Structures are given as C-alpha cells and as structure tokens.
Amino acid sequence: MCHAVVLGVLFSLPSYLYSAVPFRKARRKEREGEPTGDPKLYLQEALLERKLPDIDMRQLVDLPHGLDYNEWLASHTLALFEHVNLLYGTVSEFCTAATCPDMTGPGGRTYAWYDERGKKSRVAAPQYVDYVMTYTQKTINDETIFPTKYANEFPASFESVVRRVVRLLFHVVAHMYAAHFRHAVLLGLHAHLHLTFAHLTTLHRRYALLDQKETDVLRDLESALQLTPAAGGAGAGGGAGDEREESPRRRSPVVTQPLATA
C-alpha cells in the first residue's frame, strides 16, 4: 500500500540543492533570428561549475532502505519537473518560433512531437516545450498516476510513465544546452543548469530510465562534469552506476512501452 507521493523530507533533498537560484525574467538582448552562439560553449572549462554541496550525487538518488521505490521515483520526477520548468522559464523569452523553428539538441539532433495517439508532428521549440510541460503537469496532477491520498496505489505502468516524463524533460535540457546556454551564462544560471543535468543523469543511470540513443547527445558534457562512470566502477564525484543497472525491484529484464515516443 502506498502512502502520499510527496514526502516533505524527500522532496527537500533535491530542492535544497537548488536553493538560492536567482530565477528572474531575462531581458531581450538579441534580435529575432540572431544565432544563439556556439552550441558547445557548455564544454568550456571555465563554465563547468555547478552548484553542488558536499554530497555525492549517487547518494542523492540511491533508494533509502525501507522506502517505496515508486514514491522515490515520484519525488525526484516532481523535483526535476519543477527545476527544468523554472530554468527554461528564464530563457523562454529568447526561445521563439523565429529563433528556434525546430526542437533541437546538441549535434544537430531534432526532436519531433508524438501525441497520445502516436501521431508525429514537427513543431517549433517553444511549442514542443509547452507540450512537454502541459503533459507533465497533467500527469503529475492525475491521482490515478501520482497518488497523494492514503490508500491510493501507483499503477503498474508507473515506471513507464516516469520514463516518458524524464525523456521529455531531457529533451528540454538538451535544447537549452544547444540553443540557450549562452543566455543561461549571461544570467548566471549555467551552474544550476549543470546541476539539473547532473541530477537527471545520475537518476537515469541509477535506474536505467533513458535509452543510450537519447543521452548520447550530451555524453561529452557527462564526461566534462565527471558524471560518466570509470571502467569497472563508479565515476569521479560519485557519478552513477552503469546505464544497464537494473531497477531495485527488478529481478529480470522488463520491457516497457511508453504511450508514445517523443
């Protein structure tokens, strides 16, 4: 039987790491259609800082003994949604149909949107992000998926839902690195973006939430931030486990099929 999803003591862990983030509305400094700069700016050594207290990222995402696995996933999913939404909001003024006609990630990756019926459509980045945030907000507010009331249980498909949400949030983060990292630097938010990426990446590596083809676009940043595990063990900074590591409650491989692929 599952208890309320949002456990204050758990949710405060991710939130604490992001405390004192100076979120504010950016002023428009670029003209419509002006290039957004070098998409690999985020790899420059001087810009690889991240707001991180003395805590191992693996320790942050490891499931505490006696805690329900679904509740743990839910708490991290909620935290990631909140912070990705806030970070994108600071640069959204620069993300328009004119400046970002496609939803792109690093290395020329382009993301198409798939609706709940599997229909594929090409949309501008701000429309794509709006779809992501609307879908995620609707999902986490659905009591049958993210239960908050006593005696309500998580559905059998919960992990599959989390996989889709995390994948879509990763797309938004990837777009921010590809098209708006310079804006984040100008606003002094790049370290917080790095931390959000580190949180998402470590969570994924611990519970195998994303396919390798999704994460390849930012593999170089994983290495630069020392999130990639070293051969035969954990990576620097606590890093994360092997991407193929099984979820704590799995005893055999499980294939999950999302509602739709985006």
How much of the sequence is in beta strands? under 5%
CATH homologous superfamily classification:
MOB kinase activator
Global shape? globular
Rounded to an integer in angstroms, the radius of gyration calculated over CA atoms is 18 Å
User: What order do the SSEs take from the amino end to the carboxyl end, as H and E?
Assistant: HHHEEHHHHHH
Given as residue ranges, the uncertain stretches (5+ residues, pLDDT < 50) are 1-37, 230-247, 249-261
Mean pLDDT, all residues = 76
Separation, N- and C-terminal Cα atoms: 32 Å
CATH-defined architecture: Up-down Bundle
Question: What's the multimeric state?
Answer: single chain
CATH fold-level topology: Butyryl-CoA Dehydrogenase, subunit A, domain 3
Q: What's the total number of strands?
A: 2
| Estimated structural class | mainly alpha
Biggest sheet architecture: 2 strands, antiparallel
At the first level of CATH, the class is: Mainly Alpha
Q: What's the number of domains?
A: 1
**Helix fraction by DSSP (H/I, runs of at least 4):** 40-55%
Detailed description of the structure:
The protein is mostly helical and 262 residues long. The protein has a single domain (36-238), classed as Butyryl-CoA Dehydrogenase, subunit A, domain 3, CATH 1.20.140.30. The protein has nine helices and two strands; from the N terminus they run H-H-H-E-E-H-H-H-H-H-H. It has helices at residues 8-17, 57-61, 69-91, 125-140, 158-179, 181-186, 190-207, 212-215, 219-224, and strands at residues 113-114, 120-121. Strands 1-2 form a two-stranded antiparallel sheet. A hairpin with a 5-residue loop joins strand 1 (113-114) and strand 2 (120-121). Helix 4 packs antiparallel against helix 5 (158-179). The longest helix has 23 residues, at 69-91. The protein is globular, with a radius of gyration of 18 Å. The two termini are 32 Å apart. The model is unreliable at 1-37, 230-247 and 249-261 (pLDDT under 50). Residues 1-19 form the signal peptide. Zn(2+) binds at residues 95, 100, 175, 180. Pfam families: Mob1_phocein (PF03637). Keywords: Metal-binding, Signal, Zinc.
